Amino acid sequence: MISQLRKCCLLSLALVLLQLVGVSTLDAQDMGDRSPMPPATESDDRPDESNAPDFDKMSAREFFELIDFGDSYLQMFLDGQPLEEGEQEAIIRALTRTRRLQPHRLSRWLKLDTPWKALAENPAEHRLEIYLLTGKVEAVREVTVPREAVDSVGLASYYEVDVTLDTSDGTAQATLVVEDIPHPWKVTLNPEKNIVGAPISCPGIFLKSLEIDGDQRDFLFATPKISWHPNQPNRDLGVTVDQVRLAEQGMDIGELSHIKDRAKFEGLEREPFYQMMAAVRNMPRDRQPATTDQTVSQVLTDPKQGLMVVPQTYRAQFMRLTGLCRRITKIEVDDEDIQQRLGIDHYYELSVFVPIANPIVSQRAGDEATRKQFTNDYPVLVCVAELPPGLTVGDNLHQSVAVTGAFFKLWAYRTPFMSQEDFTRRQISPLFIAASVEKYAAPSNPETNQFVLAMLVILGVVVGLGIAFGVVFSRKPTSRRR
Predict the structure, then answer these.
(1) What is the DSSP string of 273-339?
(2) How far apart are CA 82 and CA 458, in angstroms?
């Protein structure tokens, strides 16, 4: 059985994992760089408004029937039998129809407890019910869709993922059919070796019971998305210690593959951004130390392995930065989806200028006139859920701050300095997500202190001697008595 901590994380993920496709970028106020995109709708499946059904009163099965996945397809599933070629049409239909499930509908139908005995004894009664599944991967297979059907279904292949699922009294074996799997699973050279044992969670749409092996019955579920929560680092899959920390708080690490550096925010980056923010916010503070002795200032200007050169190697890494905060902006999050799933209705964006040892130059190729140079410091953006006492929203600030946060991406955004002459030109800055920020007093330099102290002593001696001489030579001569 999963640990209580893991169970709490996954139950809190029951709604987190339901965001199938990011439909908007981050809410913001930066000249349209992050303005929301139009939300997804169900207009393709909704009947005439005058005869529109009440979706809120529907069961999942009734909804699937409305979008042409009804009894004619369900009857293709043969319970108590292994998967057969004749069932592939129904499986493909199930996968293409899960694309149309809106997150808020899926969350309404999702059941946190799975009645395994009932699924085994009376599978037809529970067909298309949706359950929260957690467990570990055993094997992954890619299945090719018949060539003649590819154009009509818009699907060239899908995946069968064998899993061992957690139950209240042990485990259950099942196969998940899913249109796509986390990107690192597909690019690794040895997927079976690396993926076996990977912790996952997903909303499982029950399709059938599989062949019986004695008293053991397996199950088949369709899912729109598998969320991946690695519990140990894996170099082949690119999983780091810091990513494991985030996964422990319920973050789907597979979402990190949607992040694009040196670009403005895109729709698919919305989900990893807010999931990371929720994970960092919920993570115990003693679990958030920087995992490197190098500060952001030190790695910014490294010409070969620096943050500005190979940002992907720093993804989700917790790092320390100190600098001068010049702007704090409050960002309102209007999406009910994010508010309900993650409890985030606002956050704060800080523009912090950190000291750099070497200049950072931005210039269009071959055009010296476009040269922009940062000599002493460089802007870094930090997003935090709350501000501490003493820090307030404003521009033209001059407050020293210190932050330990997780690196998200190199963000391309407009600033007056970079975009004034060319509206299309953007500033490229590291973006971090942190739980908190603190006011900071820069530590004094011992050598500087000794020099200043020596100068003060010398100055004190000079002043003292000056006063003494002044007193001696300013005395008036007294008259002598004869």
Answers:
(1) HHHHHHHHHHS-GGG---SSSS-HHHHHT-TTTSTTT-GGGGTT-EEEEEEEEEEEEEEE---HHHH
(2) 92
- Alpha carbon distance 418, 416 (integer Å): 6
End-to-end CA distance of the chain: 115
pLDDT tens for the chain, residues 1 to 482: 344 434 444 544 444 444 443 333 344 334 345 433 333 334 444 445 556 677 778 899 999 999 999 999 999 999 999 999 899 999 999 999 998 887 777 888 999 999 999 999 999 999 999 999 999 999 999 999 999 999 999 999 999 999 999 998 899 999 999 999 999 998 877 777 889 999 999 999 999 999 766 667 799 999 999 999 999 999 999 999 999 999 999 999 999 999 999 999 988 999 999 999 999 999 998 889 999 999 999 999 998 999 999 999 999 999 999 999 999 999 999 988 888 889 999 999 999 999 999 998 887 877 777 888 899 999 999 999 999 998 999 999 999 999 999 999 999 998 888 887 787 889 999 999 999 999 987 655 555 455 555 666 666 666 666 666 665 555 544 433 33
Q: Which residues contact 149 (CB under 8 A, 6 or more apart)?
A: 92
In one letter, which amino acid is 167?
A: T
Bridge partner residues of 355 (DSSP): 377
The kind and range of the H/E element at 372 are strand 372-374
- For 241, the token pair is 């210690």
Instruction: Classify burial at 162, counting beta carbons within 10 Å of its beta carbon; exposed 0-12, middle 13-18, buried 19 or more.
Output: middle
Residue ranges in 137-269 assigned as alpha helix (H):
147-153, 183-187, 191-195, 241-248
Please state, as a whole number, how many other Cβ atoms lie within 10 Å of the Cβ of residue 318: 25
Alpha-carbon span 207 to 200, nearest angstrom: 19
182 and 116 in contact (C-beta within 8 Å)?
no
In this structure, the number of other CB atoms found within 10 A of the CB of residue 99 comes to 13
> H-helix or E-strand containing 455?
helix 446-473
At 419, list the tokens: 């975009």
